[in-house]
């Protein structure tokens, strides 16, 4: 069985790292690709790279078909131009990979307004804007099966820990958008899923602490970015039946997250008072959320003290 032959895809942030891998792999399967990248550094500062053009040249040299788009996903008109380029050059749109990203780690104490705006703009507004213009186009042309959006969340957003900051919050929001958009776009034949990748790209190389967890390995290199691509291609393909789900991938390990859910439930015949709530909730045992994610993998749950009532006593 060979997945994905033909169609039109948009890949945002495809000038480097994971997006570059996706664009090249899609084109190798006959998908015509809009290679979007505004060419910024890991923290979002403009560079003089021609990264989208370089990826298009690479795809073309391998016999594939692609065009470059240099807009920022964080710019509303820029996002519109990405979708418009797919329609103008290739006559349609089947797949959107929302991948563009930056990371400006900061503690809450040191946080600047620029850190907040830049990260929310690229991740949250960028995902919304590109998905909006894709959805508007699909709505105009009507239902067609096998359309797909693949969003990019992060373990930092799904297992929040100290220092996750704005980046993590924006990635959490992308997971929420994934569930919401899956429900909204089903009627147009669009499946919407998200991935939390884990791979040694320049974003990781810029963070020495994270890089230390992903050393290069001889032979099978668990954190080589190429290992993420098969999951993205599967989620974009006609055989995938998942929608509204969040996946994680780290080398040979793939996981599906539980949907958002309730852990425990209390019900009363009368309205709660603060005292009756205190009584009911006092029975909640201190819980540890420490569990290995992928054994030997980078992401490990830790025990956030906020999960325990006892921590509130301090
Ligand atoms: N590498 C990992 O382990 C990891 C883990 C979790 C999530 N992610 C996410 O995966 C995605 C890809 O990251 P990567 O690791 O390949 O990093 P990367 O820095 O190599 O790639 C990100 C690309 O996005 C582009 N970009 C940034 N802002 C943009 C904008 N406004 N408009 C268009 N393009 C823009 C950059 O120029 C860059 O080419 C990001 O969303 C990142 O947050 C990566």
User: What would you report as the Rg, rounded to the nearest angstrom?
Assistant: 21 Å
Low-confidence stretches: 303-314
Average per-residue pLDDT, rounded, comes to 91
Number of domains: 2
Estimated helix fraction: 25-40%
Under the CATH scheme, the architecture of the largest domain is 3-Layer(aba) Sandwich
Q: Tell me, what is the CATH class of the largest domain?
A: Alpha Beta
* Strands, count: 8
Structural class: alpha/beta
Portion of residues in beta strands equals: 5-15%
CATH superfamily of the largest domain: NAD(P)-binding Rossmann-like Domain
Task: Please name the CATH topology of the largest domain.
Answer: Rossmann fold
* Ligands bound, unique: nicotinamide-adenine-dinucleotide
Strand order of the largest sheet: 3-2-1-4-5-6-7-8
**Shape, principal axes of CA atoms:** globular
Q: What's the helix count? A: 11
Largest sheet: 8 strands, mixed
Alpha-carbon distance between the termini?
58 Å
Secondary-structure element pattern, one letter each: EHEHEHEHEHHEHHHEEHH
Quaternary class: single chain
Structure characteristics:
314 residues, alpha/beta, Rossmann fold, 11 helices, globular, disordered C terminus, binds nicotinamide-adenine-dinucleotide
Write the layout of secondary structure elements.
Layout lengths: L7 E4 L5 H12 L3 E5 L14 H11 L4 E4 L6 H15 L4 E3 L15 H29 L5 E6 L2 H4 L6 H21 L4 E8 L4 H4 L2 H4 L17 H8 L9 E5 L2 E4 L17 H8 L27 H4 L2
Parallel strand pairs: 1-2, 1-4, 2-3, 4-5, 5-6, 6-7
Antiparallel strand pairs: 7-8
Bound molecules: nicotinamide-adenine-dinucleotide.
């Amino acid at each position: 069985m060979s997945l994905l032959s033909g169609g039109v895809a948009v890949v945002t942030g495809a000038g480097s790292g994971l997006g570059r891998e996706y664009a090249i792999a899609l084109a190798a399967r006959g998908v015509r690709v809009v290679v979007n990248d505004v060419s910024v550094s890991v923290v979002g500062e403009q560079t003089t790279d021609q990264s989208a053009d370089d990826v298009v040249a690479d795809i073309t040299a391998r016999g594939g078909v692609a065009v470059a788009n240099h807009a920022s996903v964080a710019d509303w008109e820029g996002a519109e131009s990405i979708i418009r380029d797919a329609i103008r050059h290739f006559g349609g749109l089947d797949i959107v990979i929302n991948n563009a990203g930056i990371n400006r780690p900061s503690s809450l104490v040191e946080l600047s307004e620029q850190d907040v705006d830049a990260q929310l703009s690229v991740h949250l507004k960028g995902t919304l804007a590109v998905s909006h213009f894709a959805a508007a186009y699909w709505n105009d042309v009507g239902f067609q099966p096998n359309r797909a959006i693949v969003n990019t969340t992060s373990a930092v957003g799904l297992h929040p820990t100290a220092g996750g900051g704005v980046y993590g919050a924006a990635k959490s929001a992308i997971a929420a958008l994934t569930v919401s958009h899956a429900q909204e776009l089903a009627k147009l034949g669009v499946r919407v899923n998200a991935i939390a990748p884990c791979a040694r790209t320049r974003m990781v190389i810029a963070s020495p602490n994270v890089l230390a967890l992903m050393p290069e390995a001889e032979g099978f290199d668990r954190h080589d970015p190429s290992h993420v691509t098969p999951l993205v291609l599967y989620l974009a393909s006609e055989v995938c039946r998942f929608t509204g789900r969040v996946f994680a991938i780290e080398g040979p390990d793939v996981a599906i997250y539980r949907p958002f859910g309730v852990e425990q439930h209390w019900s009363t015949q009368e309205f709660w008072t603060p005292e009756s709530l205190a009584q009911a909730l006092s029975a909640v045992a201190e819980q540890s959320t420490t569990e290995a994610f992928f054994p030997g993998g980078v992401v490990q749950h830790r025990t956030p003290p906020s999960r325990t009532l006892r921590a509130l006593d301090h």
